[in-house]
Design brief:
This protein is mainly α. The chain is 84% helix and 0% strand. It has one domain. The chain starts with 5 loop residues before the first helix and ends with a helix.
Length: 87
């Protein structure tokens, strides 16, 4: 596995921490927007709970994907810079 493989980067502490924070913030806002009445009335169905879990899972995935792609891009740029300096 190369040092910039998707899975390797996606499981680094920095990417996971950031993705969790984004997921908690964005997921909570979306859960309240989409299911606020059910949450307040404590009348959540199994379907609502699954939807709420997905509401947190999607921002986690998006944040992870974005973070990994940014790190890979940064790594490619660094490699280009290093290779262009070699005589």
């Amino acid at each position: 596995m190369s040092s910039n493989s998707f899975i390797t980067l996606a499981t680094t502490a920095q990417v996971v921490r950031t993705a969790i924070r984004v997921s908690l913030l964005v997921g909570s806002v979306l859960a309240l927007i989409n299911h606020g009445d059910s949450i307040i009335n404590l009348s959540l169905s199994t379907q609502n709970i699954i939807q709420i879990l997905l509401t947190y899972f999607v921002p986690y995935c998006v944040s992870t994907y974005s973070g990994v792609k940014a790190l890979q891009s940064q790594q490619r740029q660094l490699n280009r810079t290093i290779n262009s300096d070699v005589p």
